Amino acid sequence: MVQPAGNDELSPYYYRDNFLVLCDTVEAQYADLLTRAELALLEDFRQLDFEAQCLYVRLVSRVGPWFRESRLAYAELGEMGSLVDALADAGLVAVARGLTVEELGQLVTVAELRRGAGASLAGPATRGKPALLDALADLALDEAAYLQLMAAVDGERIIAPCGTAEVQLFQLLFFGNRRQSLTDFVLSDLGIARYYPYPLDREHRLFPHRDALAEYLACAACSDAWHELRDSGDADGMLELASTMLTSEVRFSSTEARWYRLCNSVARELERLGALDTALQIYQRSQRHPARERRL
Q1: Phi/psi of residue 192, each to 5°?
Q2: Are the beta carbons of 29 and 49 closer than 8 angstroms?
Q3: Neighbours of 223 (CB within 10 A)
Q4: Half-sphere exposure of residue 222: CA atoms within 13 angstroms, side-chain side
């Protein structure tokens, strides 16, 4: 991890500098297990002009996926159109060819929605945004048609950064977990968070090879599924997830702690559902407290 500067004065381009530290460190440690697409993203980013690099980092750091070009305003970067063009030419942003109703709703205000879609809808124009979106969904138009409704607002480009999955992977490789992100660099730069100066080299890396990384990502996907199933109350889905886990094996130490936590969480949920036999089998896969107590 980068060491804290202990300085509350950040460069206006701090985010680009931090992203380069992340990319350089990941490539130095893990280049031998990165795919061609992942290595290509690193190369494509380095080939960009300075300001285009900055805009790309801004985009991948925000919640998307889609952004209105007119809403991109960064004082240190100036005019956005040419920078978006540069990113599009490099294949690092995609221009929307269609939008879902949900994506349309995230991009426009209710006033813009009424102006762009009012002619397509029957009923009073005073309806709120959720009702307007429901009415649009009832039209069952294709995604290109919903994009045309967006274009009726002002005709601007709708863009999304490419390579977001690769950037998330780089963050995992750098931090060793999925909780931390580029934001943690800022906390370090400001001296708010301090990290032990452990060595960053191939001999001390978390994932020795791609198989270990793939196993960690598969476990993370199961963890995401558990959260979704728990929040939705999907009992059948939870049993399906448990069945999948019972046919899975953890071979690498980089996955063990996450896997044991997941086993405990899934088994505890199965207990609540009354699936005690399956819960017991899942607890038997865990070596983390309180799995033994729950088995007893």
Answers
A1: -75, -40
A2: no
A3: 18
A4: 29
256-280 per-position pLDDT tens digit: 999 999 999 999 999 999 999 999 9
Can you tell me the distance from the alpha carbon of 178 to that of 197, in angstroms, rounded to the nearest whole number? Answer: 20
| pTM above threshold 0.90 | no
Q: What backbone phi and psi angles, to 5 degrees, belong to 113?
A: -65, -40
Contacts of 257 (CB under 8 A, 6+ apart): 288
Strand pairing report for 158-161 and 93-95: antiparallel
φ, ψ of residue 43 in degrees (nearest 5): -70, -45
Contact partners, residue 155, CB within 8 Å, separation at least 6 = none
For residue 95, the SS3 value is: strand
Q: Cα(158)–Cα(95) distance, rounded to whole angstroms?
A: 6
Please answer whether residues 161 and 115 qualify as being in contact, where contact means their C-beta atoms are separated by less than 8 angstroms.
no
Structure-token pair, residue 13 = 């381009």
Distance, in Å, from the CA atom of 123 to the CA atom of 18, rounded to the nearest integer, reads 51
Q: In Å, how far from its chain's centre is CA 216?
A: 16
pLDDT > 50? residue 60: yes
The helix or strand, by DSSP H or E, that contains position 136, with its residue range, turns out to be helix 129-138
